[in-house]
Amino acid sequence: MRKNERAITRVVIATGISSVVTQLLTIREFLSQFSGNEFVIALILFNWLILGGAGTLLARLITRRFWKATVNRLGWLSLILAAIPTLQILAIRGLRDVFFIHGSSVGFYPTLSYILFTIAPYTLLLGFVLPYSLFVLRDETPDFPGTHIYIIDNIGDVAGGALFSFVLVYLVTPLQAIFLAHIPLLAATFFLFLPASRRSPFVILGAGVTFIILLLGIFFEPISMVPSEGKLVHYRESRYGRIEIHQDWEQFTLFTGGIPIFSSQNLIMAEEAIHYPLTQIDPSIKAPKVLLISAEGGMMAEIQKYRPERVDYVELDPEVTTVLFQFGLIKEIPGLNVIHQDGRAYLTDSDKIYDAIIVNLPEPETFQINRFFTDRFFALAKSHLTSKGVLSFSMQGFDNYLAEPQRQQLSSLYNTVAEQFDHILLLPGQKIFFLCRALPIKADIPELLEQKGISTSYISKFFYGNLTNERIKRLNELIDPFTPKNFDIAPHLIRLMFSQWFAKFATSPVGFMVVLAVLCVIYLIRITKEEYVLFSTGFMTMGSEIMVIFAFQIFFGYIYLQIGLIVTVFLAGLLPGAWFGERLRERGKGLLVHIDTLIIILMGLLIVALEYGGDRLPVAFFLIFGFVVSLACGCQFPVALYLRGGGKSAVTRTFSADLIGAACGTLITSVVLIPYFGIIWAAVGLICIKMTSLIIMVMTHEQIKQT
């Protein structure tokens, strides 16, 4: 291997490491800025891929007409690439309140535009640098294989994913991770300039400025976390999400992943959430057993009034409970048992029986939260209740008028939980509480409190004025029995929430999807059949990755931790796939046909597994599936590149076909297929896309083009 070749190879590997770490940190940053909305992941990946594809096409255009590829220029581009991520993370944090009103909800199109604006400089340059590196190598070694640069880049990608997933996510903050992940790129670039012919004061200055930018990011990180209102009194990056404590006068609010989930001064909510269900417990039970999934300030004090035998408080993140006790947001009471586990996973593994299960979670606007409002969860909860036990959960309340989207949400929940419980009562207020039980439910909460000898500050004085019998009856009569139920693999609530997201801002995804479809048709008309194979492969790969991400969130619920591992597994499969494809490339069209068939079979197996396994599937199943699918997809790139002749034009066109297909697969799977048709039919849709590729390859003659 020649000296320049070794130096450029090191730069490509280091670029792969830094780019994947940057991508994963960008995803986590946007999740924190946009309340953990998983659709943001899809929008980031879509923009990342489409901009990367555009950068790849620009590389061929610019180097052919304006800018000859040289080692020196590659070095300067790499220095710029190393400096941008720090600025990108700071921009994502600092510009949100500039673009949008602080604390406001943000619509689909503004979110898409904001993501595009903040990541465009980095992703365009990243897409440009990879083919540019190949062009520099071919200037010295004209027959350097395009597949080799794909494999070298993938080695860096996998290393970056592993570094993030197994080291950085546990030990450092985001900008510290950016610093550590970009030191290899900075070093590799400096050595690229090392020969005397390329050494100059400007190179040393450029490397120094890049290092200073990376270092300053660490020092500016605390400043970038200061909230617009109140005071940040605690900040920590946990494995499961960003933890912040904001203080506003005497009130402390806990934010996890950008969502306010715990307040120190919310007496009304604490009393309603606890006393509505616990007053239903049979008077003969003197020391009830209570399961509390998440909590609110003051709840423990209200539970203590019932002198419980045991209170199992389930919270996924141990860092959260540490902070809650540290700031006095949770009160230690007799019988309190803190369990650090996902609430649904705990119920699956536990054999304990309770007199009451209280679910205190936000609106099911994400797949992570929705999994506590589905048929399988309600069945699981029922199996852990006594014959006289009660389940309680809540949704957003209303004042005088119940809007149709909210009525549909309540109806879907009611119809879902009615499969498990004979009696359901909805109590309106700041929140609408669902009380679910096998026995009749009494609506007169103050009378029940009086019978138990329990005093309250809010309910005893204001319940009758706010919750009249007429209002309670009217709410329960508004339920639509024909609204579809909410299932794990067909989350109707997510579809309603997604539609409401657009309706709230008087917009629709239809216009955007029509424009995207028209652009896709124009693009597909202009590409070759080999490029279409890669387009469909990229579509299938990223569609599958999005499906695994969403399925993982549905069944396990902590994607913030595992997003790096899932992305790494999909990247890891591409490496051996490309290696095998390079060695088997001369089999040409026949190999593409066989791989297409294998991918379709794998997706069919996923459908069967999800339909009959669901949440009983282990984590390893999704990871192995992702690895095998990406291995098969990775095998097709060298073959398609070989059939296209392997020239510069072929390299950029095949790279871009893969990236553009991946971008379309990301968006269509996440915005259309899963929300409106569910996981199973989304998989069927991906099979149909790959079937078109298979049919085209079977019906055409093989021909190797020289470009």
Number of domains: 3
Largest sheet strand order = 7-6-5-8-9-11-10
Assigned CATH architecture of the largest domain: 3-Layer(aba) Sandwich
Relative helix content: 55-70%
Mean pLDDT comes to: 84
What name does the CATH topology of the largest domain carry? Rossmann fold
Q: Would you identify the CATH H-level superfamily of the largest domain?
A: Vaccinia Virus protein VP39
- Shape estimate: globular
Q: Strand content of the residues, in percent?
A: 5-15%
- The rounded distance between the terminal residues' Cα atoms is 26 Å
Give start-end ranges of low-pLDDT stretches.
703-707
Number of strands: 11
Q: Which CATH class of the largest domain is shown?
A: Alpha Beta
- Multimeric state of these chains? single chain
Radius of gyration based on Cα positions:
28 Å
Quickly count the helices. 24
Q: Strand pairing plus helix content: what structural class? A: alpha/beta
Main sheet overview? 7 strands, mixed
Helices, strands, pairings?
Elements: H1 3-33, H2 39-65, H3 71-99, H4 108-140, H5 146-171, H6 174-192, H7 201-224, E1 231-237, E2 242-248, E3 251-256, E4 259-263, H8 267-278, E5 289-293, H9 299-304, E6 310-314, H10 318-326, E7 336-339, H11 343-349, E8 354-359, H12 367-370, H13 375-383, E9 385-396, H14 404-417, E10 423-427, E11 431-437, H15 445-452, H16 459-466, H17 469-477, H18 492-504, H19 509-526, H20 529-555, H21 559-583, H22 589-612, H23 619-643, H24 648-699
Helix pairs in contact: 1-2, 1-3, 1-4, 1-5, 1-6, 2-4, 2-24, 3-4, 3-6, 3-7, 4-5, 5-21, 6-7, 14-18, 18-24, 20-21, 20-22, 20-23, 20-24, 21-23, 22-23, 22-24
